[in-house]
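Hi everyone, sorry if this is the wrong subforum. Our group has a chain we'd like a structural model of before ordering constructs, and none of us has done structure prediction before. Sequence below.
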Amino acid sequence: MDIQGAAPAPREIDTSGLPMDQAQALVLDELRALTERAEPFAAILLMPAPPEGRTPAASVSASASGTSTAERVRALKMIRPGLTAFCRGLAFVAPADIPAERAAAIHSGERLWGCPTMATQDVTAARAWAGARVGG
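Answer:
Right subforum, don't worry. Here is the predicted structure as tokens:
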């Protein structure tokens, strides 16, 4: 089998067991590292479920413990040119009961991320879509 010139496998980023603020920071860090390689890639993002019994106080303490929304937006703006140049697709695997603001970000595709996106609850479908995006 000739593996020379084979397409890279999509990168799987599993944040499913992390609090949302840590998950978002990890995704941005991983995407930044992928763009810095300056090679085409696709990624599968395994996102966490919303916290049980979410309350306004819990949301405030969670956001205080990690990066702020403004910092995440700045980080995304910094890596967006690299995503536009090298990312062939981001496949988000998220539970059905995610908050509306997270769903909107996932479904905003190229407007937000600078590359094609898809959202699903099925990791097998995400892997197939991302693999097809990089020709694998």
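For your construct planning: The beta strands are 11-14, 41-46, 87-93, 117-120. The chain is about 50% helix and 15% strand.
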